[in-house]
From TrEMBL:
Residues represented out of the complete protein: 9 to 355 of 654
BP GO terms, sorted: mismatch repair
Superkingdom of the organism of origin: Bacteria
Annotated gene: mutL
Similarity section: Belongs to the DNA mismatch repair MutL/HexB family.
Keyword tags: DNA damage, DNA repair
A single cellular component GO annotation: mismatch repair complex
GO molecular function, one term: mismatched DNA binding
Protein name: DNA mismatch repair protein MutL
Function (record text): This protein is involved in the repair of mismatches in DNA. It is required for dam-dependent methyl-directed DNA mismatch repair. May act as a 'molecular matchmaker', a protein that promotes the formation of a stable complex between two or more DNA-binding proteins in an ATP-dependent manner without itself being part of a final effector complex.
Chain ranges of the DNA mismatch repair protein S5 domain: 201-343
């Protein structure tokens, strides 16, 4: 129902960049290899995404805007525990409840496509249409029906900055895909597919950054996770042994000479998902302690992989927080891997 959709929207849709995140992830889920984004007025007026993914048939297109779990929320108590609910299948209904959305899609195997329009959660129009395979979604007038939320939006330039940072993150994580980001006045990113993360870094940040990067590659057996197993008589209900598998860190960090004054050049992905985590940031601070001043930051592009059971990426649906089961093990692994890379790179 509409109220539940708007409540969910409060969690999923904070600002234009969170809409972009959901739309991008859907396009990638649909196997798209080309993704083009257009933004007007920092995303407040228009967010448009065009992908060449597998598209949707008419039934799926309509279903995409139905909330999967309609009766999850019953009382205001439930609202408090909303962060623990699964948010799968809630992004599009949430977005459509606080904006005017139009969808154009055609499944690769269908001859005819579908066009539909939803505003404030109300379906206004469904039609057949001749369309290329893939999906185009336009989100107009974000928060037009929720003025309180609209007030929290920052300047167009700030919102656009968040969108650009986000698209950059995804482009870095998927070098084999073509990404474009345009605003009404300028092209912010045009990144054709390349062979690997290194080439993508060059493409986006240029030669100087590229040439000051040190490769990182480390791997550890997760069963060596720091915490010793408690003796049997101390194991409570919630004790779980570490999962078998490996923890792996690959990517690049910058040499000490290349420093930035903010953390905007730190990109970390955990199991393919962009994260921003205090524990991991702290691991970098430690790795660079006494090497660069505490007021500056390295450039970092790292991919951390670990058994999925070891990390909860759903702490908050819209934010990029994670929770590691073996936090200090992960922290020390990252710190040591970065230090080792620094040491190996010394002439
Ligand atoms: P979720 O991604 O968690 O399934 P969403 O609300 O983000 O939920 O999307 C609902 C559904 O709509 C998806 O499961 C998918 O089937 C379909 N969908 C959304 N965007 C696209 C797209 N760009 N291409 C193909 N299918 C899509
Ligand atoms: Mg989704």
């Amino acid at each position: 129902d509409q109220v539940a959709n708007q409540i969910a929207a409060g969690e999923v849709v904070e600002r234009p960049a969170s809409v972009v995140k959901e739309l991008l992830e859907n396009s990638l889920d649909a196997g798209a290899t080309r993704i083009r984004l257009e933004i007007e007025a920092g995303g407040r007026k228009l967010i448009r995404i065009v992908d060449n993914g597998h598209g949707m048939g008419r039934d799926d297109a309509l279903l995409a805007f139905e909330r999967h779990a309609t009766s999850k929320l019953r009382s205001s108590d439930d609202l408090l525990s909303i962060a623990t609910l699964g948010f799968r299948g809630e992004a599009l209904p949430s977005i459509a409840s606080v904006a005017r959305v139009s969808l154009e899609t055609r499944a690769v195997e269908d001859e005819v496509g579908t066009m539909l329009e939803i505003a404030g959660g109300n379906l206004l129009r469904v039609e057949d249409a001749g369309l290329p395979a893939g999906t185009t979604i336009a989100v107009r007038d974000l928060f037009f029906n929720t003025p309180a939320r609209r007030k929290f939006l920052r300047s167009e330039q700030t919102e656009l900055g968040h969108v650009a940072a986000l698209v950059t993150h995804y482009a870095l994580a998927h070098p084999d895909k073509h990404f474009e980001l345009h605003s009404s006045t300028q092209s912010l990113l045009v990144a054709p597919a390349v062979a690997n993360a290194g080439e993508r870094l060059y493409q986006i940040f240029g030669r100087e950054t590229f040439e000051s990067l040190i490769p990182v590659a480390a791997e550890l057996d997760f069963s060596r996770a720091g915490l010793p197993e408690p003796p049997p008589w101390k194991r409570g209900e919630d004790y779980e042994a570490p999962e078998p598998g490996f923890i792996r860190l690959t990517g690049f960090v910058s040499k000490p000479e290349l420093q930035k004054l903010n953390r905007n050049s730190i990109y970390v992905f955990v199991n393919g998902r962009l994260i921003r985590d205090r524990l991991i940031l702290h691991a970098f601070t430690e790795a660079y302690r006494n090497i660069i001043p505490p007021t500056s930051y390295p450039v970092v592009l790292l991919f951390l992989e670990m058994p999925p059971q070891e990390v909860d990426v759903n702490v908050h649906p819209a934010k990029t927080e994670v929770r590691f089961r073996q936090g200090s093990f992960v922290h020390d692994f990252v710190r040591d891997a970065v230090r080792t890379a620094q040491m190996n790179a010394r002439p």
